[in-house]
Amino acid sequence: MAEMRSRTEAKLQKEGVNWNWLEFIGQPGAVISDAARLCDLVIMSLGETGKPGPSIYRTLVGEVIFGTATPVLALPAHIRSMQFGRAMAAYDGGAESAAALKAAVPLLSAADDVCIAEIEEKESEFPVTEASLYLSRHGIKNEIETAFTKDSIEQTLFDMASDWRADYLVMGAYGHSRLRETLFGGVTKYFLHESRIPLLLAH
Prior knowledge:
This protein has a seven-stranded mixed β-sheet, with helices on both faces. By secondary structure, it is an alpha/beta fold. The chain has helices at residues 2-15, 28-35, 56-65, 95-103, 105-108, 128-137, 153-163, 186-194, and strands spanning 42-47, 72-76, 86-90, 113-120, 143-148, 168-172, 175-178, 181-184, 199-202. 32% of the residues are buried. It starts with a helix and ends with a strand. It is built from eight helices and nine strands. Helices cover 37% and strands 23% of the residues. The chain is globular.
């Protein structure tokens, strides 16, 4: 632990940022969720994506997403530095995607290009144009991209993010936590397993 702290503090000193080093004893998901209550953002690793099977990283990310109202920025293991210039936000009119969009405003404000991705399935009570207007009122210029489902919603969204060359994807985390098992919806589960870019997730 002392060696880890020394390495971490050395890196932080080079970045010129303020920090606190906190140590806790307990279940990691619960501890991080409690510590995140007065944080703007939780940054976590997804581990290696694109591989089958369970992952302690994805499990922990899930526990924190459903254990706190603070948004989670989940990074695949190969990401060593983040770019924030091109941001894509997935929007389907649901409460989860709206929560993610609102949580992302500080980061989206710093982006050069923002795209709201909509997959056309059925009419929504809360159309994507309202999401665009919401961002515009925060001074965030944005465009809307609409696609029709190909093989699946998750694959269509994955292709949209790749084709648009998004630096990161904002999306609502669908699912629920039952006892200590996190049960994700299909799209969320897919991206936690397969995403090659960072995910900003909120529930």
